[in-house]
Specification:
Blueprint: H1 3-25, H2 30-46, H3 55-84, H4 106-113, H5 117-127, H6 133-140, H7 144-165, H8 170-179
């Protein structure tokens, strides 16, 4: 197959996975998602000679960089608008609320949100994108051992954050399970 054919196959096979990856990180802001995904595949087209045999982790790495560029661009636009003295509503910007406290498991999302962006990313790559450690390493641009260590540390920090702030501690969950004959 030619490089063009390789790109076309990667696009067909992985477009929706890349779209979901981006959407989850942009909280579903449709216009921004489409723009970032278009940029990902523009970069992939320009670098089609570099497409690996298993392109999805590589595409996630490109998406990660495109997301960072988009976030920086939004920050620059926001600072410019602030400097010009226009209010947020005039520019149709709004802050969407995070998970509702009434939503089951919202406290887990809140605990995740309190972690560093690097910890959030490695946890999302394994949980949301269901990548193995070798694929996570490709996305993060590091070795497998480093990716494994980052994942281990991020899980440990998430566990500590959940233990610190969860609505029910693991001991009370165990007690409840015993009361209901599950323990």
């Amino acid at each position: 197959m030619s490089n063009d054919d390789d790109f076309a196959a990667a696009y067909r096979e992985h477009y929706w996975a890349v779209s979901r990856y981006v959407a989850r990180r942009l909280d579903g802001r449709t216009d921004d998602v489409e723009e970032v995904v278009a940029e990902v595949f523009t970069v992939a087209w320009r670098r089609r000679t570099d497409l690996p045999d298993t392109p999805l982790p590589w595409l996630y790495g490109v998406a990660r960089n495109c997301l960072a560029n988009a976030v920086r661009g939004q920050g620059r636009r926001r600072r410019l608008v602030d400097r010009l003295g226009h209010d947020d509503t005039a520019h149709r910007r709004h802050i969407e609320a995070g998970p509702d406290a009434e939503t089951p498991g919202a406290w887990v999302h809140e605990a995740l949100a309190r972690l560093s962006p690097a910890d959030q990313e490695v946890l999302r790559l394994t949980a949301w994108e269901e990548l193995g450690i070798d694929e996570v390493a490709v996305v993060l641009g590091c070795g497998s051992r480093a990716a494994s260590m980052r994942l281990h540390r991020a899980r440990r920090r998430l566990r500590a954050e959940i233990d610190r702030t969860s609505p029910t501690s693991t001991t009370s969950l165990a007690k409840e399970a015993k009361e209901y004959g599950h323990g």
